[in-house]
Amino acid sequence: MIKKSAKKSAESRGKKREDSRIAELQSQLSELKKLVSILERGKYMWESTFDAISSPVQIISKDYEILRANISLAEIAKSDIRKIIGRKCYEVFAGRDVPCTGCPVLVKSKGKKPSVSLLANKIFGREFEVSAYRYTGDDKGSIILHYRDVSEERRLQREVIQQEKMAAIGMLAGGVAHEINNPLGGIIAFAQLLKRDAAEYPVIKDDLDAIEEAAGRCKKIVADLLDFSRSSREGELAPTDLNVILEKVFPFIRREMQSLNVELIFDAAGRLPRVMARADRLQQVFLNLMTNACHSMNKGGKLFVSTSSSEGGKKVVVKIRDTGHGISSEVRDQIFNPFFTTKEPGKGTGLGLSISYRIVREHGGTITFEDVEGGGTEFVVLLPASK
């Protein structure tokens, strides 16, 4: 009897210990579930906050691998977040095989303070101010990159600088042109008189022809200078149909197109709003743009000209696109500068785009350009529609 009682007592104690252990495990499991729930909520809140940031943000490893990116960044990359995670950042956002020059990840890895870099993204046509911070969520040297789109800010800065530069050069050009014009007129007149007197001396006549031709080129440059310094505000503004203006320009450019084997494709918008303009000045702008477009296609191509309206009819848009060699990144910031040209010596004064820029600005509009996928350049002239 004693043995049976002892056995039952031992079994009872074992059962109690087992029940106690089960209760303890259940309590621990309950705590773990609470912790998991808290972690899941924290993860959800972190991801929601990360994705709610309107500016692009990403976390990059020291090997340039994208560890995490928010929705805003994926939208800029025009890709699903899942497709860019794990890829090299310079492949996704710069189309490169090696890290970008001045990469903020490289700069940050060499210093402790937050670094700020300015990156021009050629793929997406935007400029970003990129701030780099060391990521404290791991010990692998990862970097947080925060992008601020400064494209418009930088465009306005360049525009202000360009306008100030144009105004200063315009004043100088006008003064220089007037000073040179009179002596040039005398050189041409006396060269013509001497040619008449030297009709019996072919060698002398050839030399005088060369003098007259060179002076004529100078005269053309002076005329361009005067045109550059002249304000587009001279003359009366009138409601103008840009389709009609463009139709008037085409005959002037047709011979150039034929000689270069360029095909013109004109897409005119119906019921295009009028713009208040000086028709002859805008005609000069479009002639300059089309001439440059043709010259960029010396092996033939297509010239696309189109008109449209935007902002609910408040703006009128003219686009002139070529299939030429495009504009290299080295000269993009200089393209509207007076006297800047990529043409061979004697084939351009470098004032055409400067004059066009000034005319469009004085009509209250903008003139911009961008590379075209597959080759070529598209210039866009935006003018306010008449009320």
Q: How does the overall form come out from the CA principal axes?
A: elongated
Structural class: alpha+beta
What's the name of the CATH homologous superfamily of the largest domain? Histidine kinase-like ATPase, C-terminal domain
Approximately how much helix is present in the residues?
40-55%
The number of strands is: 12
Compute the average pLDDT. Answer: 80
Q: Just name the CATH architecture of the largest domain.
A: 2-Layer Sandwich
How many strands, what sense, and barrel or not for the largest sheet? 5 strands, antiparallel
Task: State the end-to-end distance.
Answer: 114 Å
User: So how many helices?
Assistant: 10
Radius of gyration: 35 Å
The structural domain count equals 4
Q: So what's the oligomer here?
A: single chain
Proportion of residues in β-strands:
15-25%
Low-confidence stretches: none
CATH class of the largest domain: Alpha Beta
Secondary-structure element string: HEEHHHHEEEHHEHEEHEEHEE
Q: Which keywords apply here?
A:
alpha+beta; Beta-Lactamase; Helix Hairpins; five-stranded antiparallel beta sheet; five-stranded mixed beta sheet; elongated
Question: How would you explain this protein's 3D organization?
Answer:
This protein has 10 helices and 12 strands. The protein is an alpha+beta fold and 387 residues long. The protein has a 5-stranded antiparallel sheet. The protein has a 5-stranded mixed sheet with strand order 7-9-10-12-11. A two-stranded antiparallel ribbon has the order 6-8. A hairpin with a 5-residue loop joins β11 and β12.
Would you spell out the secondary-structure blueprint of this structure?
Elements: H1 2-52, E1 57-60, E2 66-69, H2 71-77, H3 81-84, H4 89-94, H5 104-108, E3 115-121, E4 126-134, E5 143-149, H6 151-197, H7 202-229, E6 238-240, H8 242-260, E7 262-267, E8 275-277, H9 279-295, E9 301-310, E10 315-321, H10 352-362, E11 366-371, E12 377-384
Parallel strand pairs: 7-9
Antiparallel strand pairs: 1-2, 1-5, 3-4, 4-5, 6-8, 9-10, 10-12, 11-12
Helix pairs in contact: 6-7, 8-9, 9-10
